[in-house]
Amino acid sequence: MGHVTVVGGCRAKAPSTGILASSLAVGTTVKLMEGGTAVEYLVVNQGIPSNSSLYDASCDGTWLLRKDIHSERQWNTSDANKYETSAINTWLNGDFFNSLGTTEQAVVKQVKIPYRRGGSGGSDQSGANGLSCKVFLLSGYEVGWTTSDSSYFPVDGAKLDYFESGPGTSADSKRIAKLNGSAAGWWLRSPSTNDTYYGWCVYSNGNFDYYVASYSYGIRPALVLPSNALFDETTMILKGVK
Q1: Cα dihedral 145, 88, 134, 82 sign
Q2: Helix H segments across the chain?
Q3: Residue 10 above 80 pLDDT?
Q4: Burial, 174: exposed, middle or buried (Cβ in 10 Å; 0-12, 13-18, 19+)?
Q5: Paired residues of 20 in beta bridges
Q6: How far from chain centre, in Å, is Cα 23?
Q7: What is the pLDDT of residues 120-170, one digit of tens each?
Q8: I want to staple 164 with a disulfide (CB 3.0 to 4.6 A). Which of 13, 114, 157, 171 is the partner?
């Protein structure tokens, strides 16, 4: 039997049949509703990334990353690389989150993600001190890079299972995303630690690069669903929780 959930002020019985999020293989494509349209997302991790202590229990679930780039946007309106007060963090958890369907809004988890508080000159925060949000950008560590690749990466996460470590053709191919059918670059949440105005990003060929925070670049929203989230067997659209 499904739990009773409250969506939009109405009590509705949640579906009890479907494909459990926790049973989906990493790399599977599912769909979430955005502005009334079903949009493809990739399952990029199950559970706590790399079993890392950098994440608290809120991050234990099914991690989804938008398959294609949503749009190109500024990381921040000024060249200040503080993610917690950035324009993109505000947009992701405001206008973008509000564009999701009512089911998605009810099911997406509130999580605490590792991040570099205060930008380049700040400190890495993790666990219970992570940034509370529902939608976020991935970090350099989460897509497979570390300080071994560049000493200017903050330690703000651990590799997600979908991605491969380091540079190289295979690893880079997992990071390539498209905007309007063509490969394009996309922002990470990681500030570059060598200056106050650079943010890390994934270049169109899957390698790493950084730009000033006010530059408009691709956005791939990421989020975490509870393990008991349910997808329709035919359409793979999120339909509730078990």
Answers
A1: positive
A2: 87-91, 97-99, 102-107, 169-175
A3: no
A4: middle
A5: 230
A6: 20
A7: 999 999 999 999 999 999 999 999 999 999 999 999 999 999 999 999 999
A8: 171
Closest CA to 200 of 182, 187, 216: 187
Q: Give the C-alpha separation, 47 to 70, whole Å.
A: 25
Q: What is the DSSP string of 140-172?
A: TTTTT--TTT-TT--------TTS-SSSSHHHH
Q: How confident is the model at residue 1 (pLDDT cuts 50, 70, 90)?
A: very low
Residues in the chain: 242
- Give me the residue label for tokens 């780039």: 69
Using alpha carbons, select from 9, 6, 63, 15 the residue that is nearest to residue 239. Answer: 15
Listing DSSP states for 10-29 in one string gives EEEEPP--SEEGGGSPTT-E
CA angle (124, 222, 67) in 5-degree steps: 135
Single-letter amino acid code for the residue at 110 = Q
Q: Which residues fall within 8 angstroms of residue 122, CB to CB, at 6 or more apart?
A: 82, 116
Q: Which amino acid is at 108?
A: V
Read off the tokens for 78: 């000024």
Which residues partner with 198 through β-bridges? 212
